[in-house]
Design a protein that fits this description.
The protein is an alpha+beta fold. 27% of the residues lie in helices and 32% in strands.
């Protein structure tokens, strides 16, 4: 997803989505945010556990965390996966966007174990 200046990209080799600022002066500074995830096999297919959202403090207050989460959730849904909101930001964002309700799975202990193993 993109709005020309900002773009959300999936980086599956890193198990995260990144938020890119195409107007950053230094190409090394283009990544300004990230949404970490881990995939869990569920009874109805893949469940993508979104467990950490972060946007650079230099970009605070611009709604970019919401842009990042929307891009990530849109990608998860487009893939036919379920969304598991472990990150407090994502867990607070989803109820304000009921269009995604049919794609959300409440976090379970196996999701939390997967997050713990990913963070080690």
């Amino acid at each position: 997803m993109t709005d020309q200046r900002f773009e959300v990209q999936d980086r599956p080799e890193e198990s995260r989505y990144v938020l890119v600022d195409h107007d950053a002066a230094n190409p090394a500074d283009q990544i300004i945010g990230a949404e970490d995830y881990v995939d869990v096999d569920g009874p109805d297919g893949v469940q993508r556990v979104l467990f950490h959202t972060e946007v650079s403090a230099d970009y605070a207050g611009q709604g970019l965390a919401s842009l990042l989460v929307r891009g990530a959730v849109d990608d998860v849904v487009a893939r036919g996966y379920a969304v598991v909101p472990v990150c407090p930001y994502v867990a607070g964002w989803l109820p304000r966007h009921p269009e995604y309700d049919d794609h959300v799975v409440k976090p379970r202990p196996d999701h939390l174990r997967a997050v713990d193993s990913r963070q080690k």
